[in-house]
Write a structure and sequence with these properties.
3 domains, 20% strand, pyruvate-formate lyase- activating enzyme, 32% helix, five-stranded mixed β-barrel, five-stranded parallel β-sheet, 18 strands, single chain, globular, Rossmann fold, 14 helices
Length: 483
């Protein structure tokens, strides 16, 4: 039996997909790149933009046509809004939240599919499931019935329930040197443009002992770049006050662990919210070498009135204090951000204030998105009244401002020898691509693919906006790791 998964959306969805793959692998399924060869087809959905949901509907329409010629099972999970969930239930064989992932083997077993896991006796969870009625089943044609989960209320707004069981699944990591560790799920902020609180529910922090166990395992296996994931990572622990450490406390635990190890590794995190970013977090990052000196701090807009409109609950001055603290305590750190252009009612003065923010904070990278209504978000009820051509012009204006500061920083690296992590072949023929600790792209001439996943030293020779080029100097000597 073979499976193919389509992953849409952010790093959190990629991390979720790794756990889905692990469950399927343990059932005896084999992954394939060609979806036409698969018996089990799934989507890790994203509800950030309507375009992403449209891709899900496009896939299932194609897959359901294939069912006329061969036996298939289809499923969808990930970030799914209640309204879409109801529609998906009529088109996919299985629709489940990530908190329900541990029950996936039992769901699949309801179809009578024989796998190495399926021949084992069903556990209590299977016995508690409601099986569909089978009044007229043509065994020769083998038309599959829908899997039925225990009845739940419609428009479920608590997909976070049971997420702890999901975290207990060891993921099938997609890389041998880079990995994601989910530390928190959901969000309590309710930004008006965002649907995450409706697709992933309220904030739930993963136990720090589990996070540290996964981190320790990754480091011992030789992973070099590890990213802590959450919709709002720096609110970690706030839902378990007195029972769990704060985000700064978690970083300190990781830093102490890093100090105890001979292996070199970098730990990142994304995404924080300015409202919860404390000076203590920055102070802890400054104390430990394994905590990467790169901060992703979404601003979304450089105008206070627009920030209120977005329900961001921070001001530009609040944000400025955080950046000033970063520059003071982490002068070597790079700074990334997220920005939305063309949000409902955005004025020329407001977009100019955002340009000024880019100028002031000198970002190394900004992920600038042209606003489109997110289904389920509060702003989806408002007029999308900024014309597409105006959004596009504002996007290019901000990108040009960003390029100035990215180029200036990258040029300051010329002549310096940087430690970088090699990530793979570059698009430029005969080159490898790497990232500095601050996630600046560095390409260099080399045909040695054995360097991929290794730390090397590169002397920077030239720079353009968003990337640099240099000469390979040496591979760092690393302690052997236990595989």
């Amino acid at each position: 039996m073979k499976y193919h998964i389509v992953q849409l959306g952010c790093q959190m969805n990629i991390s979720d997909g790794e756990r889905v793959q692990e469950v399927l692998d343990k059932m005896g399924f084999e992954p394939v790149d060609d979806e036409s060869e698969a018996n089990l087809l799934g989507v890790i959905a994203c509800s950030v933009r309507q375009k992403a949901i449209d891709k899900v509907y496009s896939r299932i329409q194609k897959w359901n046509k294939w069912k006329n010629k061969k036996n298939l099972i289809t499923f969808v999970t990930g970030c799914v809004l209640p309204a879409d969930r109801e529609k998906f239930l009529r088109q996919f064989d299985m629709v489940f939240t990530m908190s329900e992932l541990p029950g996936l083997p039992e769901m699949i077993q309801q179809y009578g599919i024989v796998t190495p896991a399926g021949i084992q006796s069903l556990d209590k969870g299977m016995q508690e499931m409601e099986l569909p009625e089978k009044e007229s089943r043509n065994e020769a044609a083998f038309r599959m019935d829908k899997a039925v989960l225990p009845q739940k209320k419609k428009n479920i707004l608590h997909p976070e329930k049971g997420i702890e069981s999901f975290w207990h699944i060891t993921p099938k990591y997609g890389s041998g040197y880079e990995a994601y560790i989910p530390i928190q799920n959901g969000c309590n902020k309710f930004c008006t443009y965002c649907a995450v609180p409706y697709t992933r529910g309220r904030e739930v922090s993963r136990p720090s002992i589990e996070i540290m166990r996964e981190l320790r395992d990754l480091v011992e296996k030789g992973y070099k770049s590890i990213t802590l994931l959450g919709q709002n990572v720096n609110s970690y622990g706030l839902d378990k006050k007195g029972e769990e450490v704060s985000f700064a406390g978690l970083l300190r635990m990781i830093g102490e662990f890093g100090n105890s190890r001979a292996e070199k590794f970098w730990v990142y995190f994304t995404s924080p919210h300015p409202r919860d970013m404390t000076d203590e977090v920055i102070e802890v990052i400054a104390q430990y070498t394994c905590l990467a000196k790169q901060i992703h701090l979404p601003i979304q807009s450089g105008d206070d009135a627009m920030l209120v409109h977005m329900n961001r609950n921070h001001t530009v001055e609040n944000y400025r204090h955080i950046v000033q603290t970063i520059r003071r305590l982490l002068p070597e750190a790079t700074l990334f951000t997220d920005i939305i252009v063309g949000f409902t009612d955005e004025t020329e003065q407001q977009i100019e204030n955002t340009r000024k923010a880019i100028e002031e904070f000198r970002y190394n990278m900004a992920y600038i998105a042209q606003y489109s209504p997110r289904p389920g978000a509060a702003s989806s009820r408002w007029d999308d009244n900024i014309p597409k051509e105006v959004k596009k012009a504002r996007y290019h204006m901000l990108t040009e401002e960003l390029m100035k500061h990215s180029l200036a920083y990258n040029q300051s690296l010329i002549g310096k020898t940087m430690t970088v992590l090699v990530r793979g072949k570059d698009r430029k023929q005969g080159y490898l691509s790497a990232l500095t600790e601050g996630k600046i792209i560095v390409r260099f001439v080399s045909a040695d693919e054995n360097l991929i996943g290794k730390f090397v030293k590169v002397k920077i020779q030239s720079a353009v906006p968003f990337s640099t080029e240099g000469d390979l100097m040496a591979r760092e000597v690393e302690k052997p790791v236990n595989i």
